[in-house]
Amino acid sequence: MNFLAAGVKRIQEIRFVRFGLVGVGGFCVDFSVLWLMLHGVGLDKYSGRCISFMAAVTFTWWGNRTLTFRDRAAQTGLLREWATFVGANAIGGAANLGLYMLLVRYAPAPVNNPFLALFAGVLAGLTFNFMLSSRIVFRKSPKKQSSPEPR
Predict the structure, then answer these.
(1) Nearby residues of 145 by Cβ (< 8 Å), 6 or more positions away
(2) Are the CB atoms for 80 and 114 separated by under 8 Å?
(3) What mean pLDDT, rounded, does the chain reach?
(4) HSE-CB of 142 using CA atoms within 13 angstroms
């Protein structure tokens, strides 16, 4: 049991893994809110998607500021931090969709398979979002640079 607990603790220490896990939670929020907007509220698929995206991006912002980047989260200016996070995620989303479209349209088989292209797009978006979140949204403040940073 100690081996399992040590493995779980090690995973919790890796910032990129925490970022990915928060993203999985964000996907669940996105899916659930979209379903609710379409089937519970009766919105059209575009309005419902806008609402579900905003719910998911807000969830992932909060999760990342409290779990992934808790040592770098803003103490003030929360609205600005949230808006910067939304913008960074839009760039990651564009990378995700762009790579997907390029692979599906131009790549040879089997790379042009929509599900392989989806996987590649998700990895690209995750990488962009993590990079932008680390360097722009939740960047280290000058006073915190001397303390050791968890991975």
Answers:
(1) none
(2) no
(3) 88
(4) 0
pLDDT digits (tens, 9 = 90+) for 40-66: 999 998 899 889 989 999 999 999 999
Cα–Cα dist 145/89, whole Å: 25
Rounded Cα gap, residues 93 and 88, in angstroms: 9
Given pLDDT bands bounded at 50, 70 and 90, which one contains residue 87? very high
**How many whole angstroms separate alpha carbon 139 and alpha carbon 5?**
30
Cα(45)–Cα(133) distance, integer angstroms: 29
CA distance 145 to 151: 14
CA 136 to chain centre: 14
